[in-house]
Amino acid sequence: MPILSASVGLTRYRIVEEVEDDLIRSIPNLLVKYAFKDIDHTAEERSFGWVNMDDMLDDKWSISPPEKGQYYTFSLRLDTRRIQPAVLKKHLQIALNHELEEAKKEGKNFISRDRKREIKDQVTLKIRARSLPIPAIFDAVWNVPDNRLYFACSNSKVLDMFEEYFTDTFELTLEPLTPFFLAMNMLGEDAAQKLESLDPTYFVG
Amino acid sequence: MDLLLLAERENTLLGQDFLTWLWYKSEIRDGLFELENGERFLLFMEQRMSVQGGEGENIDTATVNSSSGDMTEVLMGLKTGKKVTRAQLRMEIDENAWQVQIKAEDFALSGLKTPKVEMKDEEGDDPDSKFLEKIFLIEKSLSLLDCVYMEFIKIRISNNWQDEVAKFRHWLRNDEEK
Predict the structure, then answer these.
(1) pTM of the model as a whole
(2) Strands A8-15 and A174-176
(3) Nearest C-alpha of chain B: how many angstroms from A113?
């Protein structure tokens, strides 16, 4: 989801580790190193990586740099090939019919379970190679001085992928600013015990 | 990750207590809150809200999406011990208004609308100016949210929380008399 949309979904993070100046300087290089790799001309099911927030086709930040003021900006691009179940069912049926005819010529009247599985894999791969990956874009904005990061998405699967890939790229850990962690962040570690031992409130009594 | 799992209970507890308290607090104050620097802003709940009660398989949810702002059904829910699990908030400073939906258990924000940012490019504009204005406005709304959350969390962990709950109950009962 683009951060400039009129209506944005947002997940907030704190970066757990202290970020060294050397690392900040190497952000542009690390983004290129872990950039998105196109799968249009393959049969890969999925690919994801960083791209320029200003242009999802720019995986080398040649159009604009990731720095904008005190922020580093980039997007997680995720391309996925999806096969419609009905399409797979049809082509699997065609392939199985064909296989059965061949088997009959050899005097067999069935297809083994292993062979069925093999055929299904082949058919899946063949359809996948013919279908175009669907791209999705999720913007990330890293406020470096504040150690905060905003990610324009709230889908838990995408969040898991983002958090893991961020750690792989920068060797830093993201802590989602959920109610407990936001409170810890505001009050300091000393408040942890108090926050952990709270009882739920009964608002009616 | 273990820490995240451990925090699940606390997240739900704090998030629901916060949104439930926020409803009461914004009602009795007519939405008026103040940042640390003295800047005043308005924050109130509007239009959409969900309340939830019960545990495990017996979770009951009541959701209202009312353009007229009639919250009777969720208010009924509060009176039977339900808590606010999702809400739409509106924040205002002078002419500027923000709108956002917030989920209690993880503070995920959705449908965040900031004051309008001019998207047309003018000659000589800094190419990043639109982004910088937008992110300024986003961070502004987060600072308002954090400000009310900070106020809540300080009372929540203090000995004054039971007094606050007593006031909440009084407010809820008074609503019945209206």
Answers:
(1) 0.90
(2) antiparallel
(3) 40
